[in-house]
Amino acid sequence: MEIARNAVPKQAFAGQPAWSAVGSMAMCVAMLIASEFMPVSLLTPIASDLGATPGMAGQAISISGLFAVITSLLIPAIASHFDRRHVLIALTGVMLASLVLIACAPNFAVLMVARSLLGITVGGFWALATATVMRLVPAESIPKALGLMYTGNAVAAAFAAPIGSYFGAVIGWRGTFWALTPFVVANLLWQWVSLPSMPPRAANPVGKVLGLLKRRNVAFGMAGVMLSFGGAFSTFTYLRPFLETYTGVTVPQLSMLLLGLGAAGFLGTYGATVMLGSHLYGLLRWLPLALGAVTLALLTVGHVFWAVAVALIGWGALNAAIPVAWSTWLSRGIADEPESGGGLLVAAIQLAIMLGAALGGLLLDHLSIMATLIGGAAMLAISSIIVGDGGRLKPQGAR
Fold it and tell me: Helix, strand, coil shares of the chain as percentages rounded to 5?
């Protein structure tokens, strides 16, 4: 009976319907990334309208990270009782509810509740995404399907911030979030007609996921993941306050800078993909160190617009390459437990985003924006030290 229960649904291999389902997941990824990081480009007006400091508004990213961590650890066990199709549609519905609540938020407390709901979708969807794709398409098509899904990630990462900044100035930050809701509704309908029934599978309990930390290479890997992502988001979350107060940019200039940063992510993703075959551990070591160096360079050239533009392009390329490298490490470092390892990786990344944004906000409110960037660079440097030559990240017995 267990074999039948775990079988991949035949209708998922029907060709066009399967790729339509993968396309609906790619769109969901784009909406998630846009919703999760839109506050980065709207931090100042959100804080002003809700009577909060920029550092407090930055905690809206932290709180979504907290709930994403909790959900990513619990969702494998919860989803084991339900059809995967229904779980994914329900998570997308929660994202829609979050956007509506954000757009209507009368105060900072309601904003935080709305962001908590978004965190549930982020953690749940990402923890289930890869395993779902593996059930939608044949084995030989999995790399192509994953590439399509992560294209949604790249597109949203490139355009969410500049579009948010531009429309925030035109229709206000609330109008910007309202503008996302029709796309999420369309995504819900697409999922409803394209996702096949995917019966529940055997549970992956939280204890099994956390038990991976007993492995030396996994413990060091998760430390490296958290420091690299935490350092990056300590800076990324507060780029708008930096550019407004340190560089003195206008809103159109801000949009162009954020567009350049996001578009550079395509270059970073491609470059990392090309080099991963023989330079994985070198990338894991040197990418965060280089990103930390560029972060400090922003402070040095921060008053020169063209120099800041160049630095942000480099920052965007380096930052985009880091997730690609760590995802590849997962396939090698925890090859025997990819689903449990995936849940642990999502939890570590979201926890790092939460803590990084929180630390950056504290440094901004109590010290200065300079302290925020220095703190982020310090975490990135420590991540590089932990990775070292990569020996600590290899499974026991591997060369």
Answer: 85, 0, 15
Give CA torsion, residues 21, 25, 30, 33, to 10 deg: 170
Angle in degrees, CA 316, 318, 321, rounded to 5: 105
Quick check: 386 and 225 in contact, CB under 8 A?
A: no
Q: How many whole angstroms from its chain centre is CA 294?
A: 21
- The pLDDT of residue 399 is 55
For residue 288, pLDDT over 90 is answered with: yes
Amino acid at 58: G
Closest CA to 60 of 157, 184, 173: 173
| Predicted pLDDT at 182 | 94
Joined together, the tokens standing for residue 261 give 């940063």
| Spatial distance between the Cα atoms of 120 and 72, rounded to a whole number of angstroms | 8
Output the average pLDDT for the chain.
81
Contact 93, 41 (CB under 8 A): no
Q: What is the pLDDT of residues 226-243, one digit of tens each?
A: 999 999 988 888 888 888
| CA separation for the pair 305, 290 (Å, rounded) | 21
Residue 332 CB neighbour total at 10 angstroms? 15
User: Is residue 203 helix, strand or coil?
Assistant: coil
Which distant-in-sequence residues (6+ apart) come within 8 Å of 376 by Cβ? 230, 231, 232, 233, 234, 235, 292, 295, 356, 360
**303-324 residues labelled b (16+ CB within 10 A) or e (exposed):** eeeeebbebbbbbbbbbbbbbb
Q: What is the pLDDT of residue 74?
A: 83
Long-range (24+ apart) CB contacts under 8 A made by 326-331 are: 326/221, 326/224, 326/225, 326/228, 326/284, 328/276, 328/280, 329/221, 329/280, 329/284, 329/393
* Residue 155, CA distances (Å) to 30, 55, 346 in order: 7, 27, 20
- Confirm if 190 and 19 have CB atoms less than 8 A apart: no
